User: Fold these one by one.
Assistant:
Number 1:
Amino acid sequence: MNLEITNRILENVLYRQELQKLKELEKDRIFCRHGIEHSLDTARIAMILCRENGIEINPDIIYSSALLHDIGRSREYTGKIPHHSASVSIAGQILDSINCPPDIKKSVISLIENHRNPDNDRSTPEYIFYIADKKSRLCFVCPASRECYWSEEKKNLKIEV
Ligand SMILES: [Fe+2]
């Protein structure tokens, strides 16, 4: 399947710049990083969970949201702006510059905006995306697990399906 919007994001100059900026800011980070590997893990887990839960969603929306959901993280490090808000702002600029259709933009922005919201309705893609973001983390092999602020219940300490 051709992920049209996702691949336009991938080639976008602003996206690449922000991704590079984030990579540099996180190069010495001992906790989870927010590079493209994390984005793709989140997208793939979200796709599986959507299928398992009978939630119909265009995969291009899931993958686009995954690429962009943490893209504002650098502004949290440098400007203390919550990264979901910064990501919404940067994602909006990127989606406009690649001529993303308004209905897809609206869905992508909603997934980004709610990716840290534990109160999402459980029947929504927003909830699935929130869970996939957390499930993508490999706490069971993380050397910084002890210092991590996540509670023991929240950490992924076992491999699950
Ligand atoms: Fe994330």
Number 2:
Amino acid sequence: MNPSPSQRSGRILLAVSGGIAAYKVPELVRQLTKAGHEVRCALTPAACEFVSPMVLQTLSGAPARSELFDPGEEGEISHIELADWPDLVVVAPATAHVLARMTAGLADDLVTTLLLATRAPVLVAPAMNVNMWDHPATRENVGRLRERGVLLEGPVAGELACGWEGEGRMAEPEAIAARVGLLLSGDAWKGIRVLVSAGGTREPIDAVRSITNRSSGKMGFAVAAEAARRGAEVVLVAGPTALSTPPGVRRIDVETALDMEAAVNAEFPACQVAVMSAAVADFRPAHREAKKIKKEDLGPDQGLRLDLVPNPDILAGISRERGDRIVIGFAAESHDVVEAARRKIARKGCDLIVANDISRADAGFDTDTNAVFLISPGGEAEELPLLSKAEVAERLLDRVEKLRGVAR
Ligand SMILES: Cc1cc2nc3c(=O)[nH]c(=O)nc-3n(C[C@H](O)[C@H](O)[C@H](O)COP(=O)(O)O)c2cc1C
């Protein structure tokens, strides 16, 4: 793999922990050096059971260290010098154990000491048995690492070395090397403006009442946060929500679908990517009473009839005007999720629909996790497992990178 013109070569400290996927690390070193990066390897004692430091040393052309207390190795380049050296640290494979130690801030061997001492960004490529990956301890550790800015590549789903099937395979060396190139180039999202809509809308009936829905805005805020973290310029059009604005994001608060349409249409022309995750009310009351409607004014035992008129279809509107922009919509479905989303993408004409099943207790409105399908214009459906909304945002932006032609 030769670096593309936008990619910069850099110094990569490759930390290897003791998972079976370590057998793929020589290939990763080869790919990284071929792309022009300078690579130094550090191994945990367990990693040395799976891959030989000699192989990594030979392929990287630099000493591969595995001991913290080795006077010879420490004399050649101290662990602090090694921690200060890289532009990027890659932990591949990252075992459940090393993720736990990173979360706890332990520094009980060379690799974890380097990870605690370095100020370079850290990319981890987890690899483990699916049950270890799904274990609440690992989920919690990964969530906390992510909050601290640790980047993840994979794991991917497939057949695992232990005989189980599921998510837990280390991302392929090509994918990790491509991500490294992207991170070092630092410009995959530079100058890209991303417009995100989030939350529900609130359609007033009178001075105090309104029609709204249960959308919390968490999914859209996670997308905005992730896009900003990747270096995009982010504009977030948010319906009423108590969520705080993610760092680096410009936020426009709106209340009604008409307000949201006006804000989205005003921002859309200057954007390259639009992710419309807001739950926009399909209808609004035809008239808004300026005062509170009083029960007594309606007469005894009288109900209240509301006349509803359709709201504009914001997603279809911007999809028609999109030119070469990428437009992504969300669909909240309670049944026939994939079929309904296929019909929606055909109707709206956008590049991708993220469909979630709101009948599940652990997905959709006001949850911290989401289980979605990514539906392409041709109707292909990729099912993602139950993930945190931050992880769904990552997967979604990985897909946007692919759609924009940035290799992954
Ligand atoms: C054959 C074998 C394969 C293993 N594969 C993995 C793995 O893929 N992922 C993982 O998290 N742990 C795996 N383990 C367990 C780790 O090696 C063990 O947790 C070790 O303490 C990890 O140490 P480290 O994180 O310091 O490298 C494996 C163990 C054995 C015996």
